[in-house]
Specification:
Elements lengths: L3 H27 L6 H46 L2 E5 L9 E5 L19 E6 L5 H15 L3 H4 L5 E4 L5 E4 L2 E4 H4 L4 H4 L2 H22 L7 E12 L16 H4 L5 E6 L7 E2 L3 E4 L4 E4 L6 E5 L6 E3 L4 E12 L13
Parallel strand pairs: 1-11
Antiparallel strand pairs: 2-3, 3-12, 4-7, 5-6, 7-14, 8-12, 8-14, 9-14, 10-11, 10-13
Helix pairs in contact: 1-2
């Protein structure tokens, strides 16, 4: 990796060499030798005029080069400061056991009500590929595709970010949300089956168990909370602020009930879509998880895990966000087919 200090020293050296070159060129243009006095005077006047013109051209070129190099330096600095990224888990890796990356818990938890056996004492982010099979992930993706298709072309593939919540029935349709259980009550059993909902509930339960085991929690003191939803993201330009999914955020701040967040990926990074990686934003570097169908990424929801999703540049990214709370007052039930 190129160090920031070495890069800036190199850029400054290049600028100094360019300025020296143009000064020497101007001096050479002004050195004219001739034995004829009149001819010398004419050439001196001509040389002076050329020198002034040349000097202005030289100044312009130098300024242009300096501006270009300065822009490159700024880009390099921003790249070094913002995109120093460690890949925590790549798509090609297959984790048979959860991989946990511990981070210090934020002080925010001191301001929240504490629930023994659940409130984070150990914070971090974990990844596993052994909880959900790729076949199950593909089945859940097909479930999501069928449900999201109810949004039509306006709420479908033309929309940057689309949401389907089986718990509340919320479906993004254009610039609003509709309740699929009311709006499409006659079609629901043609779109979903009881097997779909059974798989969804079973996967949710397994995710809850692996979070509890990894963080040393009492699983019975964790509760599913809202919003828990399917998401579909593509490279279409954002039409509303709700489509701008890529902004950094803290789940506990955005959704007060969250204590643990998990994502189940239903498609593969660099195969089904480009961009769309999950990025944990730490003070001195970023940690990236590359999505893989069947992969579960989970983390404590406080400010120790500031994060964002990289913008999708091609293809379509499918995932499920499954959220848990320690507060029984914010618990929601598993969805059932009406």
């Amino acid at each position: 990796m190129v160090r920031e200090g070495d890069s800036l020293k190199f850029i400054l050296a290049v600028i100094a060499e360019l300025i020296s070159y143009f000064e020497m060129a101007v001096q050479r243009r002004g050195n004219v030798k001739n034995s004829d006095t009149n001819a010398i005077e004419k050439k001196i006047r001509r040389a002076n005029a050329q020198r002034r013109a040349f000097t202005w051209r030289g100044v312009f070129i130098v300024l242009l080069l300096v501006s270009s190099i300065s822009a490159a330096a700024i880009w390099l600095y921003m790249s070094l400061s913002d995109d120093v990224t460690e890949t925590l888990v790549s798509r090609r890796e297959v984790l048979t056991e959860p991989r946990l990356f511990l981070v210090q818990c934020s002080e925010d938890y001191e301001n929240y009500k504490r629930f023994p056996g659940c409130t984070p004492k150990k914070c971090g982010r974990g990844v596993t590929d052994s909880v959900v099979t790729r076949e199950e992930a593909h089945s859940l993706r097909r479930l999501a595709e069928r449900g999201l298709s109810l949004g039509g072309s306006d709420g479908g593939q033309k929309k940057t970010a689309s949401i389907l919540d089986l718990h509340s029935g919320a479906l993004s349709m254009g610039k609003k949300f509709v309740n699929i259980y009311r709006y499409f009550s006659d079609q629901i059993k043609e779109v979903f089956t009881e097997e779909d909902f059974k798989l969804y509930r079973d996967v949710r339960s397994r995710i809850q168990r692996v979070i509890a085991e990894t963080f040393g929690l009492d699983s019975s003191r964790m509760y599913l909370t809202k919003p828990t939803f399917f998401s579909r993201i593509n490279s279409t330009g954002a039409k509303t602020t709700h489509d701008e999914y890529w902004h950094p955020h803290i789940d506990k701040v955005t959704y007060g009930s969250f204590d643990y967040t998990s994502l189940l990926y239903l498609t593969d990074y660099s195969v089904d879509f480009g961009g769309g990686r999950f990025i944990f934003m730490d003070p001195n570097s970023n940690g990236t998880v590359e999505p893989r169908a069947g992969r579960v990424s989970f983390f404590s929801s406080g400010s120790e895990n500031l994060h964002r999703v990289e913008q999708v540049v091609w293809g379509t990214r499918y995932a499920i966000t499954v959220s848990f709370t320690c507060d029984p007052d914010h618990a929601i039930a598993d969805p059932t087919l009406p």
